Structure formats: C-alpha cells, structure tokens
Amino acid sequence: MNQVNEGSTANLAISFYDEHKAAVAPTAAQYRIDDVASGDEITDWTDFDPSPSGATYDLKISAEENAIVNSALTVEQHRITIQYDYGSTDQGTAQIFFFVKNLAMVPLPVEVTP
C-alpha cells in the first residue's frame, strides 16, 4: 500500500520479525496512525489480535483513518507505527509510510464545447 484515496478502506499486510530477521508469532500487537507533516494523531494506540499466526497479518485501515488532515494538500504522507510482543519478554517496533490522495484536489476533466 503506497497510496490510497482519502475516505477509502485499505488493507496492510504485516509480517513480524525479531532482531535477527526471523519470523515470529506475536502474542499482542498495537498500532497508531499519524500525519507526518503536522504530527497530528489520526488514530491513537489501538490493540489488535495478530493471530491466527501465519506469514502475514492483514491490518484493515478504515475509511475514517484515511482522512485528509490538511485540505490544501494534494497528497499527505501518513505513518503507521506498529508495536508487537513476542517470546517471553521481547518487543518489536516498525513504521510504515504511505500517501493519502486528496480527492478534492484532483482536477476534473475539462469539457470542451465547439
């Protein structure tokens, strides 16, 4: 997911790894979403169940979470931060960046009449 239209649902495939790049099965996980330019929080820390454990987990980003913060921009960069617990005392953290396209700033086709 590199870019998503504002107000659209998106799915993010997440894989979990330890410090040696070996796949792990987390026991708990949470995420938050922030606007990069303004630093505004879009979604506060939200727990999610990373099971069933497998190669990847699909995290659904809601249409409300893919909202535009600054309506003067054509696109915004958002950051998802993920924290997860694995093993008996270990924790991993990752960040994923993506763009949200401001549909109000997309020019409409021009109709030419003779």
Question: Any overview of this molecule?
Answer:
The structure is a single chain. The chain has 114 residues and is mostly beta strands. The protein has one domain (3-105): Macroglobulin (MG2) domain (Immunoglobulin-like), CATH 2.60.40.1930. It is 0% helix and 46% strand. It contains no helices and seven strands. It has strands at 3-5, 10-14, 28-35, 41-48, 57-61, 75-86, 90-101. The strands form two sheets. Strands 1-7-6-3-4 form a five-stranded mixed beta sheet, with no helix packed on it. It has a two-stranded antiparallel ribbon with strand order 2-5. Strand 6 (75-86) and strand 7 form a beta hairpin. The relative contact order is 0.31.
Mean pLDDT score, rounded?
Answer: 90
Distance between the termini: 42 Å
Counting DSSP E segments of at least 2 residues, the number of strands comes to 7
Strands side by side in the biggest sheet: 1-7-6-3-4
Briefly note the structural class of the backbone.
mainly beta
Tell me the name of the CATH class.
Mainly Beta
Total number of helices: 0
| Uncertain spans | none
Please give the radius of gyration in angstroms: 17 Å
Full CATH superfamily name: Macroglobulin (MG2) domain
Oligomer: single chain
Number of domains: 1
Largest sheet: 5 strands, mixed
CATH level-two architecture:
Sandwich
Overall 3D shape: elongated
Helix content: under 10%
Order of helices and strands: EEEEEEE
Remind me, CATH topology? Immunoglobulin-like
Q: Approximately how much beta-strand content do the residues carry?
A: over 45%
